[in-house]
Amino acid sequence: MSVAPVAITWAVAGLLGAMLLPWTHRRRLAALVPLAAAVAALVSQGGGADLVAASAAGGLVLGRPAAGLVLLSALSAAVCLLLSPPPDSGDVLLTAACGALSAVALATGSPLIWGACFVAGAALFGVRLVAAAPARATLAAARVGTLGAATLVAASPFLPVDAAAVPPRAHLAAALLAGGIAAGFGLMPLGGWVTGGTRLVRGAAMAPWSLLLLPALLLSAQPLDSVLPADGRITFGAMLLPAGAVSAAWAAARGLGAADGDRYTRVLLADLGLVAMGLATPQAGARLGSLLVMLTHLCVGPLLLQHPASAGARPRRLAWAALSGIPPSPAFWGRFALLTALTTAFGGLLLVVTLPVAGAMLVIALRAAMAAASAAPAGTTRARAVSLAAWVPALAAVTVGLVPGAALRALLGVA
Length: 415
Description:
This protein is mainly alpha-helical. It has one domain. Helix content is about 75%, strand content about 0%. It has helices at about 5-25, 30-45, 65-85, 90-105, 110-130, 135-155, 165-185, 190-200, 205-220, 230-255, 260-280, 285-305, 315-325, 330-345, 350-375, 385-390, 390-400, 405-410; strands at about 55, 60. It has a two-stranded antiparallel sheet. Helix 3 (about 65-85) packs antiparallel against helix 4 (about 90-105), helix 10 (about 230-255) packs parallel to helix 15 and helix 13 (about 315-325) packs parallel to helix 17 (about 390-400). Mean pLDDT is about 85; it is low at about 50-60.
């Protein structure tokens, strides 16, 4: 499918929403902006090879998994905007810009355009965070996120690396790619910007990163076998494997004592640490596990990114059940596939890290579910449409957990 209709729809819908919704006093209808992009993606969606990035003489082309991800990310952002407090024009414009940039990044075969899209998205996201909540944490988010994405642009002159190239070129390209991905994922020692920023902003302000930029970076980081020779893949894995392990363990440990509003971010960072470890192995199960983890967070993220008091207790409990790792939750299948692939590739030594991480996330989810059950109801009465929309993420996650293989085939075209 061509990415042009989707990117144009993001841009036009974002501009119209930013201009017209405040004027008509209908800010709640901001959810129509990503919904319009989702409709464009659905209409334009066709076949395509099982490739994340593809290029064609006629323009930018999305492969099947990337096309499905564009659709899912837009739908997830639409639900997030519907559940969030009415956003202002800046949030609408930022969501539209990041959506368009993510779609182009997934469709291009040029490493330079790919990296430039993430740099632009990270810079816009960082500026918006600082404007919404000026603080050291948001300044760190803007600085680390943008500089991290810039390393992807720095890697572009070396990509793709010919297998016959001298080793230093391959190692340099791999190191730059790993650094950019680590910064985008919020891995240690850079992950503090994520947890610090989310204490100050929630809901629609976090959607451009967690629901648009991050899924695109995760999916496009996977087909590295085609751009790096063996030496480069070894360097890439050697950097991401320890960074992912430390990040997963640290986020899970901190999540055990976190307040209710901070728990979801800790679980997200712990899962990103596991996914980063999965990128270090060529096992097919690692890719499937990463996709399932990503689908789970796209389902529950729109609900759990909100302030705990702004969403119903029952949908939140169901969303936390999907993240718990108890079968048949989607988080269980994703983490199980990742752990199996890591054990196959590197032996049982990694279980010393991964099993406690999985156990800690189970405890975090159970505590969060109990906290949601005992939380006081919100002081305002929500519209019926918003109340019903709160059930959509939780029910979607449960469906993915019940039929994970069918969900991957139907949504992303991955067997």
